[in-house]
Request: fold
Amino acid sequence: MSDKIYIFDTTLRDGTQGESISLSVRDKLQIIEKLDDIGIDYIEVGFPASNPKDEELFGILKNKKYNYSRIVAFGRTNYKNVDVQDDENIKMLIDSRADTVCIFGKSSAFHVEKVIETTLEHNLEMIFDSIRYLKKNVREVIFDGEHFFDGFKENPGYAIRTLKTAAEAGADFIVPCDTNGGSLPIEINKVISKIRKEIQTPIGIHFHNDGGCAVANSIISVDCGAVMVQGTINGYGERSGNADLCQIIPNLEIKLNKQCLKDAGSIKNLTSLSRFVAELANQTPVSHQPFVGVSAFAHKAGMHVSGVSKFASAFEHIPPESVGNKRRVLISELSGKKSIVIKAKQFGIDLENNPKKVSEILEKVQMMEHKGYQFEAADASFELLVKDIAGEKKEYFTLESFRVLNEKKENGEMLSEATVKILINQDRIIETGEGVGPVNALDMALRKALTRFYPKLKKIKLTDFKVRVLNEKKGTGDVVRVLIESSDGENSWGTIGVSENIIEASWQALQDSIIYGLSEIN
Reply:
């Protein structure tokens, strides 16, 4: 692999400016460890002068050293009416003892005169003085030219002067920023080529995604000579987010043969990194996210599945394993018989020479999806369906009946009580459970009835519960679809139930969840 591209991660700084994203100090430390493990060159962890949380983080980081990554402190040039040596922001950047300091300054004449309200020449002095002073006190300084691309359109000469001034002051990297995120790929070549003619200092790039072009703009910039890319994991960031490193890194490494991470094998951890950061940020992973999304290598149409089964490259631009993801075959009414055969093989069932069973399964799926079932997010329910028709499903219990009562107390508290009657072999078990809702009560009652016979049930936890009305025009009398996600602490699985009665739909999904879990736990 040739041509090193430095990856600058700003998830912990720019990423946390995204709506609904907040990370504790502990969260940030855990993410830093993961970024260091995968081999990210620079980790921008925050703004020492901005809030107590970042001050605490930098205090901890002063006593830590990482194997690969360089810790970056972020700040601005000195304030317009304060000498650089007296500026508290500059002092805190130096006191942070970070490996690298990244400061931003205005590259837009409009912003200089109208937003920070100073002269164009004084802005250049602020850029020069801040970088020159920092270079005397820290090892490495990166300059982010804020609003550069908009500034270039307004006054290209001045925008370039801000970058040249930073270079003359000794900045180690010059990073023009598309702060408003509105630049188009067709503009990038001209701009980056102009910068490279004027400046010998290594060029980085920082794009926001307001126009939906941040990833494309970043990749084009590298092709034009940029050697650093700034972005965030999963594209988190203000407004529409930042350039998504989970898309940029594999495009550069796999498609353009650029070295982004510490070694060639590190990229196989990209999917797990994406999901780890999403979990700590309390964000639902985007299923259709390129490269790392759960649907990125999912095949539903029968022709696609057939093609992939013969040659993976027929419908996949890269092998999913190269980024730590995996291929998924989805089952729906659009599926062909080949999809059923391939999916069954994943369950350890060979239907290659049993076309009758394959046809039966396909007809069953089509009939159930017509009623409202959807198996893309309910692999466990589909596996149980296949095993049932193939004669390989194990019956752990038989339902005799269940009953659910709801009670509203005088103090306003709601309480649900469920009673289940089941048969296990020759034993008839009756148990009652209480919960905050009917599904919770059913879950509690069923567990009480089963745990004595199946102690490993204690490992299974219900982790998510979703209800969708399939035809909103019918209101409360319509069919509902219930999706349940469960986990044993290591693996997760989805199950489904459909009925006009929400309790019945929930029972179907809950029953499948328990049966599947019992069959999988060793």
About this structure: The mean pLDDT is 88.
